[in-house]
Specification:
The protein is mainly beta and 426 residues long. Helices cover 12% and strands 42% of the residues. It is elongated.
Length: 426
């Protein structure tokens, strides 16, 4: 009965809250109404109940204080918590619309309001609890956008320059506790994009570019890329090579590739110790590597491409990049993607093809055409042993161009279509 009653109350709150309308708060209003503005990351959470309602307390790992109206007691020893409405506590669940929800790992800028009313009955020692002013408008979440650049966003705003946003806050508060993002300064990231595919007779060349993330510039030390294939392959048979694109790396870096096994290849770029000249990687994509191979390698199938190791040098110290990404272009998505079936022609057939009939003629009974993308190599069908001896199964693959790979399978069978399809391996 307790659970049913609580659910009814929650549903009532949901219906009432749906009638509410968002009221946009300007940056000036959020700043003026906040007691504390910080850059922080949610590192832990717990739920508690107060006056019959469930709340979630999110522990904040504060990177920097941007504005502080009233300093909390023993500031350096204080653990900061941001309180949000709702959560799960034992066998009860409470959710709200039009209210902020935080998760572990979220990071950004918090507009916090001092709070003494809805703290836990037994709060952790040395803790300060704050409400987020403006709810969904009171937390500016940091993330990467579609262009692999840093961005910040809340309910009514989105921007790419967090330092400028902090500057706007400083103008309002007339303080300069922080001029550059602390969280941004602690991050490092690298993204490799597989760009243009140049297709020539007997060779395909991928041109790649590289970019530093979080709007920063890095002295590149080392990058190791792993290519995982769907089928066993010996790359030396496909004229595989890796080199600097447009001489970007010049003589300051060594490029190489190796195969630890027949399903993986490692591409590596390493700084030469004999020179102090580094390739600088900034916040714009720049030429990096070109990878060439014979077009028939496409039929082998690439399962994944990823950066497995990357380092940069800052001063006299070499650091690992924390954030590594691969950005695929349209060509790679189409030709290294998961196989898919788009159509069958005809929709149903069960007549079969006799052994003395020729293949490849769509008018023959039992001829099935399966169309799709990225089929790669096709394995033979293992039909049931009860197939009549005077019938046969054939595979014919039609490749109009190497770029389309295998886009059509002609299948001759004497069994029902669904049963035949269960044995196709692509």
């Amino acid at each position: 009965m307790k659970k049913l009653f609580f659910l009814s109350i929650s549903q009532l709150l949901l219906v009432v809250s749906l009638q509410a309308q968002y009221l946009e708060f300007s940056l000036e209003k959020r700043v003026s109404q906040s007691d504390l503005i910080v850059e922080a990351k949610v590192i832990d959470q717990f739920t508690y109940k107060k006056d019959g309602l469930i709340y979630t307390a999110s522990e904040l790992e504060v990177c920097a204080v941007i504005y502080e109206k009233v300093a909390p007691a023993a500031e350096n020893l204080t653990t900061f918590y941001a309180i949000t409405y709702g959560g799960v506590l034992e066998d009860e669940f409470n959710t709200w619309t039009h209210m902020l929800t935080l998760q572990r790992g979220m990071e950004g800028l918090f507009f916090l309001k001092a709070n003494n009313a809805i703290v836990p009955e037994t709060p952790p020692s040395g803790s300060s609890f704050y409400k987020v002013y403006g709810q969904e408008q009171g937390f500016v979440a940091y993330a990467k956008n579609d262009e692999w650049d840093f961005s910040g966003s809340s309910l009514f705003e989105s921007f790419n320059d967090i330092d400028d946003y902090i500057g706007q806050i400083n103008e309002i508060t007339e303080e300069n506790n922080l001029t550059r993002s602390c969280i941004l300064g602690s991050k490092s990231g690298l993204v490799l994009m597989l760009d243009t595919a140049i297709v020539e007779l007997g060779e395909i060349t991928f041109q790649t570019s590289i970019k530093g993330q979080w709007g920063k510039e890095y002295n590149l030390e080392k990058v190791k890329i792993q290519v995982e294939f769907k089928n066993s392959v010996n790359l030396s048979q496909y004229g595989f090579s890796v080199a600097s694109l447009n001489g970007t790396l010049t003589t300051n870096y060594a490029t190489s590739w190796s195969q630890p096994n027949q399903l993986n290849a490692i591409l590596e770029v390493t700084k030469n110790n004999s020179t102090t000249t580094y390739q600088q990687v900034g916040d714009q994509f720049s030429d990096y590597l070109e990878i060439a191979f014979h077009p028939s390698l496409l039929a082998v199938g690439v399962k994944s491409v990823q950066i497995v190791e990357a380092k940069f040098k800052d001063g006299s110290t070499v650091f690992d990049f924390e954030d590594l990404d691969i950005l695929y272009n349209k060509f790679v998505k189409e030709h290294f993607a998961t196989p898919s079936i788009t159509s069958f022609e005809p929709a149903a057939v069960c007549a079969g093809v006799k052994a003395d009939q020729s293949s490849g003629n769509p008018v023959i009974d039992g001829h099935i055409i399966i169309k799709g993308n990225n089929f790669g190599d096709v394995d033979p069908i293992d039909f049931p042993t009860e197939m009549p001896n005077n019938f046969r199964v054939e595979f014919i693959t039609d490749i109009s161009t190497i770029l389309n790979r295998v886009s059509r399978i002609d299948l001759y069978c004497c069994k029902s279509l669904p049963k035949a399809l269960t044995t196709i391996a692509i």
